[in-house]
Amino acid sequence: MWPSRIENPIFLLNIYGHYPSLADVEVTSLQIIRDGPSLKLSFISKVLPYRPPTKWEPFNAVGFELNFFALKAVNVVHMASDGLSTIKMQDGYGAISMSCEGALKCSLTCGFLFVDKIVGLLQSDKEDWS
């Protein structure tokens, strides 16, 4: 689930046609940054876009980097070195709430969400999650 207040959803919506599911993603990085303050969350999804850029070929996964700005609260409970997580986001009263369950267990409240990066990735068979 994605909040309706994403600051730059155009590329995401152009390649997917909708907001893709964030269930069963592999979180690769979580970085808290003093300036802003902000939190960058990087993850890999197996949900493929229906209209990917041709420069991505070949690919079988998509890498995302989300930047949560104007942090109001952050709670990181644990982060495992492997495994899958489910990310949920929603709009609140003047804020965006995000929670993550699974290999990464965390939650946050922020003012803004930016999609910093979306890239096609080619993962080997041993990284297949199915």
In short:
The chain has 130 residues and is mainly beta.
Can you characterise this structure?
The chain is mainly beta and 130 residues long. It has one domain. The protein is 5% helix and 48% strand. The protein has 1 helix and 8 strands. The chain has one helix at residues 10-16, and strands spanning 26-33, 38-45, 61-69, 73-79, 85-91, 96-102, 104-110, 112-121. The chain has a 4-stranded antiparallel sheet with strand order 1-2-3-8, with no helix packed on it. It has a 4-stranded antiparallel sheet with strand order 4-7-6-5, with no helix packed on it. It is globular and about 40 Å long.
Structural Rg: 14 Å
Tally of structural domains: 1
Total number of helices: 1
Query: pLDDT below 50 for ≥5 consecutive residues: which ranges?
Result: none
- Distance separating the two termini: 22 Å
Strand content: over 45%
Counting DSSP E segments of at least 2 residues, the number of strands comes to 8
Order of helices and strands: HEEEEEEEE
Which whole number gives the mean pLDDT?
A: 93
Write down the overall geometry. Answer: globular
Helix content: under 10%
| Protein structure class | mainly beta
Largest β-sheet summary: 4 strands, antiparallel
Side by side, the strands of the main sheet go 1-2-3-8
